[in-house]
Amino acid sequence: MGRVSMDWRRIALISALVGIATMGDGRLAAQQVPPAVPFAPLESEWRPIAEDELLVMMLEGNRRIVIRLAPTYAPDHVANIRALARSHWWDGESVYRVQDNWVAQWGDATEKKPLPSGMKALPAAEYDFPIVPLAQRLSRTDAYSRLSGVSVDGWPIASDGQKSWIPHCYGTVGVARDAAPDTGTGAELFMPLGGSARRLDRNYTIIGRVIEGAQHLSALPRSMAAMGVYDDPAQRSAILWVRLASDMPEAERPGYRYRAPDNARFAALIEAKENPMPPMISLGGVDICDLPLEVRAVP
Amino acid sequence: MGRVSMDWRRIALISALVGIATMGDGRLAAQQVPPAVPFAPLESEWRPIAEDELLVMMLEGNRRIVIRLAPTYAPDHVANIRALARSHWWDGESVYRVQDNWVAQWGDATEKKPLPSGMKALPAAEYDFPIVPLAQRLSRTDAYSRLSGVSVDGWPIASDGQKSWIPHCYGTVGVARDAAPDTGTGAELFMPLGGSARRLDRNYTIIGRVIEGAQHLSALPRSMAAMGVYDDPAQRSAILWVRLASDMPEAERPGYRYRAPDNARFAALIEAKENPMPPMISLGGVDICDLPLEVRAVP
Description:
homodimer; alpha+beta; eight-stranded antiparallel barrel; four-stranded antiparallel β-sheet; 17 strands; globular
C-alpha cells in the first residue's frame, strides 16, 4: 500500500473491539499483547461542549470552521470574542495572512476598524495561569515544558511546575498582538500551521482550538510577502460571518461533545500511543500536540 | 501591527549588525544584553551542496521544489532515488495524497508502475544509524529523543544515546512503505505537513529535506477521503518532471549552499533562540524542528 497511516482513532477502536493490532498501513496482524483496558470510550465519556463555547466562522465557498473556546483559561479574551461575534464585527472581514509553517491569521486586515462597545480595549494577557490539575500526564518532557498532559475538561496543558498554559499546537487559536504582551484584544486571531509556533508558548494568549474545518485554513495559499501578509487584497479569503453557536438558529447550530480524558480508557489510549506495538519501534513518548483529543458532532 | 513574527533570520541579522533587539512584530527596542558573539555567518561558513545532492521536482503551474538529499544517512535509498530521477520515472506522475496535519505524498498513485533496472527492489530500512557527532547540541530533550542537535553537515539529528536519526520535521522527505520496515523503495515519497509526523521517527527512512518550495506541497487541498488519498484523480497535482541538478542544463540548474553549524556564530544563534530577550518570556529551549537551518541560493 505504501500509506503512512495516521488514523489512530480507527486503529484504536478496531484493536479494542476485535483484539487485534493494525500496522502502519491499516493491515491487520496478530497482536502480541492484548490491551489490559480497551480504548473505546463509554457513552458517558462524551461530554457536551456548551453552545456559547462554540464559535462558528463561515468562509466564502461554504467552508465552515468551528472553534471550541476556552473561557476557563482566557476569560477576558473570550468575553471580548463573544462581544465581537454578537456585534457581527468579523462579518465581511478576511483571512489576510498565511505564512508557511507558521500561522494563518484573520480579522480586520487594516487593524483600524473600531471595536464594539462593551469590550475590554486592552485585556491583560492570559497566556499562563496557576497549575492546572492533569487528568492524564505524558511520560516525556519536551523542548518547551517540563510537565504536560490533558486537563479534565479536555485541553492540552503544558507546565514548568509553577505555571500552566495551553501550548501552541496545530489547530489552537491565538491572539495576535503588538510587541508588548497586553496589546491583543481578540479581534485579530491566528491558528498555527506547524510545530514552529510552540516557541510562542507562554507569550501569546490561546483562546481555543479548531475542532472542525482546520483544513480550510491550513490549505490556503501561502504568501511569500513580508510576514506572510497577502500583498494583494484579492488573495484574502472572505469571512462571511462569525457567530456563537448559541446565537444561531437552532436548525443550523452545530453541537459537539468532547471525549473525557479522566478515565482508564483514555489512559490506555495514551499508553498505547507512547508504546506502539511492533513492527513500530517505540520511542517511549508522544508529543503534547499529537494527543487524540477527540470530539464528536451531535445532531 | 498585530503580527506574530517568525522572521528569525532577519531579527538575528539586524540584532547582530546594529546591536539592537527586535520584538515579536519586528519593531525595535533597546537591547538589554548585547550578544557576545554576532549571529551572522562568515562568508566561508556557507558551504556548497553537491549538485547530485539536489533533487528538483517541477509541479504543474511552474511550482518548483528542491530537495537536499541525504546520501550520508540513507545511501541505498538515495541511490534508488538517483536511478529513478535518471530514468525520468516520476515524469507524468503526481502528488496523490494530502492529509491534513499529516503528510503530502507523491509518486505513482497506482503503486504498480515497474521500477527501472539498477534499483534495489527492497533496500534495508535506513531510519537510524550509529551516533552522529553533533556540531551543536540543544539544551532540552523532547517527547521522542533524548539528545538532539545539528550535524556538522547541517542536518537535524535526534538520538536516544545509542542510535541517531533524522527527525520527521516539516519539510523533511520520507520513504512511504508497507507495514514491514524494509518495504520502501524511494519511489513513493512524503513530506510531513505538521508536527504529528514526529511519531514516525526511527520507523520511516528520511532521504532529505525540502530547501525550496515546501509551500507548494503544504498549501495543496486536503483530501478528507481515507488516508488522505484524493478520491478523484482530477484532484492530483501533476509532476512535470524530476531531475538531479547535476543532470540539468547548466543554465537551469539550481545551486545552493548551506550554513555551516560548527562555529561560534551558529552556537550564538541557537543560544539566542533558546533564550529570547524580554518582553518574550524564555522557555529555555527550542524544538529540533524549529532550528534555523539556513540555505542560500547561489547563481
